[in-house]
Amino acid sequence: MRKSRKKLITMLVAEAILIVFTVIVTLPLFLAITISLQKPETVFSYPPKLFPRSFHWQNYVEAFRLVPLARLMLNSLIIASSITLGKLFTGTLAGYAFANFRFKGKEVSFALLFATLFLPAETVMILPLFLIMKKFNWINTYWALIVPFTASATNTFLMRQHFLTIPRELEDAAKIDGAGPMTYFRKILLPLSRSMLAGASIINFVYAWNMYLWPLIVTMEDKMKTVQIGVKMLIDAESANNWGVIMAGTVVALAPTLIVFLLLQNLFVKSLVRSGMKG
Amino acid sequence: MRKLLIVILLVSAIFAFAKVKIQFWHAMGGWRIELLQKMAEEFMKQNPDIEVEVQYTGSYRDTLNKLIAAVKAGTPPHVVQIYEIGTQVMIDGDIAIPIEDLIKKDPTFDIGKFLPQVLNYYRVNGKLHSMPFNSSNPILYYNKTLFKKAGLDPEKPPRTFEELIEYCRKLTIKDEKGNIVQAGITWPLHSWFFEQFVALQNAPLVDNDNGRSGRPTKAVFNHEAARRFFRLWYTLSKEGIMINTKKEDWTGARQLFISQKVAMLISSTSDVKLMMDAAKENGFELGTAFLPKPKEAEQGGVVIGGGSLWIIKGHPKDEIEAAWKFVKWMAEPEQQVKWHLGTGYFPVRKDAVEELLYKGYYAKYPHHLTALLQLLFSVQTPNTRGAIIGAFPKVRDIIETAIERMINGEMTPEKALEWAEKEATKAIQEYNELYE
Amino acid sequence: MKEGWGISHPFFGGEEVRKILPYILLIPTFIVIILFIYWPAIYSFKLSLYRIAPFGNRMIFVGFKNFAKLFHNPEYINSISITAIYVVSSMLITLFLSFFIAILLNMKLPGNTVYRTLIFAPYAISPAIAGTLWTFLLNPVVGHVNYFFSKFFGIQVEWLTTKPFALYALIFATVWKTLPFNIIFYLAGLQNIPDELLESSMIDGANAWTRTWKIIFPLLSPITFYLVIMNIISFMFASFAIIDVMTKGGPGDYTTTMIYRLFLDAFVFQRTGSAAAQSVIMFIIMAIVTIVYFKFGERRVHYQ
């Protein structure tokens, strides 16, 4: 009797902690939504509000009016999806190579690939990368916004770890059946990796969706810009701000990443479970 | 014969519709994007042979970085808005066509119509390199309602540092635990305010006449005028009668004033409209005043802030001409009035001010008059013209760091200022190494 | 060591094809990283040997002077120590907190899916926006956090403008942003541990604490191994955005990490040569850290 009592208490405490934790974690999101629904003059009143009292939808209308948000979101969608697919493509192939093959130079090439994590694009490399874009004549094109980001050490690493956990027996069975390495890859390995691919997709999509500086530098027309630039456009650093409208834009800009996560999250968590992300 | 005619017609049609395209990059976000777009469209209506592509290119800082990348790649825009402290960097980069050169070739343009204070900022070594466009000053905003509640005369804003401290003491309300419920004043922790209060006392920031008669070689702002301001800031902070924001936090400061957590705010004149609306919505009476000065200080003036328009080299002649037409047009009184009404940056020309005056504008909006008068009353010396420093962004950061350290009790005002001057000199010398 | 389609297995397509297959698989990735990461990187690294004017119209070769200057600069040394404190603190808090929350989520209590979904939010929000929102929440006088604090604890903290709270606030925001990534991986790992293992330890009389630390955590060590290095990389290189919005490196350089200093020199002060030198230094530091990490860390990882 006491044991189940203890269990109940543990569960209640756990539930309480989870609730508090979730609330704290989602505070900023609530705040963004609340501010996005407030009238401009009431945003800074005291005491501070966490839940909207009014539903000033005009903020959203205004955000779409001031900035071509729809077009920008479309751009971001195209770019983020392409980058995601690109990274999945290169990452699975490379991860396969590192996990299932022995070849000369394997360690060196893995190290070279891993080292790219210490060379982030959005800092010192922006200028040389821009000059390269000029050489290719890619300035102000989707190419410049997509291609440089289609390979990723993170993806490769992730897929490699995952492929390493697939039992050798499956490989041997495939060989016995007369399947070649690429057939094995297509027909057996990939299907087993669905969830890991889902997880990698989330990571890639969010990364690409949140880029700001590179798209700013490399686009030369408003219609090529991305949604993060759009949100920045709503902000007016030196002068008056309408935080209601800014947050409306922010919430709109946030929505797709949350939606992508919602769609893919079940796959992802289940994946790590089934394939056993052990290492 | 008919074929030839058709060809001639087609070709001339093509030429007739061949517009000159120019690119205009700016850093004005928010509703100002729309305003600039409308102005550009108006220009295009009046000049059907020119097409202006207006692009918001991020903050001032982002815009400069984008410009650098574009220049290095050989694809610069035609017209770009750069912040005032980027003036020396732009000149040293040798990438712009000085506006002065274009004025000399254009007899229709009368530079005399511009406010001398504004011209004086953007004239370096006697030459006007860029076209003044959006100019602002700091002013003191105060909450008349809270003044009355504290027993202060709402028509008597503080005029000296001493009065300011006294007022803040009276306006600060703390609860039993010593937490601030309402403080006297706030302003963004920004070097701009330091520069203004130094200029107000007619003191320099750097040598060589504030960089006006030659490249500055060292910082010279460790003087009594600067110390007075640092001490003021230190005293206000230590007594807890001022709320400090983080670096360059314009929004934070505005937020505090609008929510009536502070009774006074020092901020840009471009906030006038916002403050007027906010006061109405939040139920308090707004007052504006000149910046207070130390009693014993010399009469100086305020320095222009904001940005200007630069025309970039490397374009064919007809595009440069179109760019000049556009820049000229943006500086015309009609546009300046529109810009002022829409943003709060003041019009940079005398005739625009005149127009507003006759329209009864200043009678209706006395707060805008405050800003303008403060500017007009400024004595014109190298100290009030604004410093010209290549390494200005770094110098600003140093000053802001010094202020933060002083407020946090790590350094006394005197030590902080001394340190800042030393570091600023280092930064200036490092910059100059490239141009020896 | 996993042996794969090594050379020793004869196959359709012949030995030659399969000898070069791994290289072919790597081609897409390597084309991209050589063209778009290494090529710019080499160019950047070259710049570290020069003093360059903002618009590039003056270039002076200075050899290693940029590097020497950095190491003689007390501010740079300071940023190294701040980075170390920031990375280590954020790492420890993130790991242990996410592990703990993952355990709670693994208990499949009511509302589990809701929590799991909502907890993802910080990951989706861009650092700049996250910083802005936290700045609002942490405003000393009108912010929600202090409203709560003053009502319940009677104190009013100046979160972003004083030491040491600015660093706390920064670490807090960083941990907040990194938790979802970590929680999800730990959660997956937990769901992989066979229940029998957990049950058997209960029978052994092991109490919850021992159970967690002596059994479960080591079982998840491969995940921890992965997360630690990924977190370090994230804290080292991606933190500048959130610092720029929340504290701008202040107060008084207190929260200026190495990457933020690099960001300032590259994009605000236009000190291109010094910024390039700093990126070289960070590259070397991370290379060393990674090598050491893989060599010694892997030993402590418990594979099944």
Structure description:
The complex is a heterotrimer of chains A (279), B (436) and C (304). Helix content of chain A is 71%, strand content 0%. Chain A has 279 residues and is mostly helical. In chain A, helix 1 runs antiparallel to helix 13. Chain A is flat, with a radius of gyration of 24 Å. Mean pLDDT of chain A is 84; it is low at 274-279. Chain B contains 21 helices and 14 strands. The longest helix of chain B has 20 residues, at 413-432. In chain B, 55% of the residues are buried. Chain B starts with a helix and ends with a helix. In chain B, strands 1, 2, 3, 4, 7 and 14 form a six-stranded mixed sheet that branches. In chain B, strands 8, 9, 10, 11, 12 and 13 form a six-stranded mixed sheet that branches. A two-stranded antiparallel sheet of chain B has the order 5-6. Chain B folds into two domains: 18-136 and 304-376, D-Maltodextrin-Binding Protein, domain 2 (3-Layer(aba) Sandwich); 138-301 and 392-435, 3-Layer(aba) Sandwich (D-Maltodextrin-Binding Protein, domain 2), CATH 3.40.190.10. Chain C has two domains: 1-47, no CATH class; 64-300, MetI-like (MetI-like fold), CATH 1.10.3720.10. Chain C contains 14 helices and two strands. In chain C, strands 1-2 form a two-stranded antiparallel ribbon. Mean pLDDT of chain C is 84; it is low at 6-13. The chains are: A mainly alpha (279), B alpha/beta (436), C mainly alpha (304). Chains in contact: A-B, A-C, B-C. The A-B interface holds A 39-42, 44-46, 66-67, 126-127, 130-131, 133-134, 139, 213, 216-217, 220-222, 229, 232-242 and B 23, 28-34, 53, 55-59, 62, 65-66, 68-69, 72-75, 136, 250-251, 254-255, 258-261, 268, 270-271, 273-274, 277-278, 280-282, 306, 343-344.
